Amino acid sequence: MTQPKTTTAGENGTTYRIGDTLTVTCESPAHGGAFIARTDRGVIFVRHGIPGETATVRITGTGPKNRFYFADVIAVDEPSPYRRKHPWIQADSLKTPQQREAASGVAELLGGMEYGHIDPAAQRRYKTQILRTQLERLGKINAESSLLTTLTVEPMPNRDSVEGDLSWRSRVRYDVVKVGESWRIAMHPHQSSHSVPVVDFPLAARDIRDLHLEKLNLYGVKTLEATVSSRGRILLQFEVLARFECADIAAKIEPQCEALFGPDLAKKKISLFFTPQRASNAKPTTRSYRPSLRSAYRRVREGDVLSGGGLRSVTEEVLLGKTRIPYQVSAGGFWQVHRCAPGVLAQAVLGMAGVEEGACVLDLYAGAGLFTAAMADAVGQKGTVISIEGSPVTHRDARANFAPGDGISRTERAAETRIEVIRGDVAHHLVDLKTAYDFGEIPPIDVAVVDPSRDGANRTVLERLASVDPTRIVYVACDPASLGRDTAILRELGYALTRVRGFDMYPNTHHVEAVALFEKPHTHYRVKKVSTAKSKAKKRKMDKPDTSKPIKPNRRRPVVTD
Predict the structure, then answer these.
(1) Is 470 within 8 Å of 498 (Cβ atoms)?
(2) What residues form DSSP beta bridges with 272?
(3) How far apart are alpha carbons 235 and 207 in whole angstroms?
(4) Model pTM?
(5) What are the C-alpha distances in Å from 357 to residues 269, 283, 382, 519?
(6) Cα–Cα–Cα angle for 266, 271, 273, nearest 5°?
(7) Which residues are catalytic?
(8) Which residues of 18-31 are buried (b: 16+ CB within 10 A; e: fewer)?
(9) pLDDT tens across 390-400, in order?
């Protein structure tokens, strides 16, 4: 490899400038996908590096007051034994812009696979180190605690057409950008607001990759979301720009899809769903209304266009023990992106929750009900599950999935389980739940499952959750820093972190999933009155009438005599 000329960085001052190149040695992984390197001018967060590896880097950004810097690796003298060939040339920093452009037509370096150059086992070691560090520094967990010393990030199973650490994403959302006279699928470079075209995305499921969506001319489309369900059905959702009619755009794109995928889209289980852009400044248009088709999951709203398989939702199946649970998930609704994640997470959460039959479970940020179904099956007919979700799309899915009598996500054990599906802000509804709890309208909450977004649950939510006094809290986190911050808050509120597991749900990226269990130091139980011989004698004495005094009639309930 030709080595770039290394300049004396900062020669005109004591700081580095964007574009400067220098040689550094990375020390340890940092949260966010970079690795830490130190120089006499400050800390540098290096992307595409490996600890212990000496590399040439180019400065790409500076922190406030030049206190720290950002850089990309552009050359390596002696590669680390953990470095491998990057599986995606558009995200390979060791390729020159000219090499990337020759292979893909795009010179820019894309994000999305910042760990792609690292051996998968080494990736998990670095993610384990990051997870431990965040729990120690932000969560205030002792570094010598067995919780951290035994913590490892576990690999995901290779099944459901997952190809090792590739082809695991069942959902991919693409932007659309103009290239010459055509409009193509696109993604963002790291920390960039503009999009660039993509040719292939190795993390996408093979069913999606084989469609070659990069060959479509998506004129008039804002975004394209590609989904493949666990049953192999494919749903392509086209968000049409507000100034266009969905019917007009569908008439141009549908023939392209038939030419690219095959003439009979329905037979190939491919559905095309065109929906207008949802924006406050969208231009009003006159659209026709089409009635529902056979089921609620095929309902067509005003302005929407369906073709091919005619579905605007997919059915996902999760194997829980020997029970296979189906879920209906609409286009644009939330579902775990790794093909194996739903089953792995449901088993992990169920194992930590330890719910018994007849228990009451609270499911916060419940989505379409992945954990709601598992908990309802565990608590049985006498139990209660309360689900709260803010998204209107996934809330509608949850209401349908757990509808009394015919909800498809109700197992045989949960056919009559009380399942309350609530839509709205979690913090707001926790206040209502506290009132209902105080008035005895809901039973005491045994377990709360919390699965927030990447930002985590804030202090207000956790304080209000603590007010309803669940015995155990199972926290599902997709960001180690958020888990660390919320761990510190829960510990302040009297909950102890007793178990944590990490999962490599996003191979080749810096993201990592964790499931943590928090418990109250005391055990909730009902106090039972114990009768003793002395208390029984006292009761007999009280029951014996006193004949020395006349019996006064009960004025509230008149005495009836013959």
Answers:
(1) no
(2) 236, 307
(3) 11
(4) 0.86
(5) 40, 53, 7, 19
(6) 145
(7) 478
(8) eebbbebebeebbb
(9) 999 999 999 99
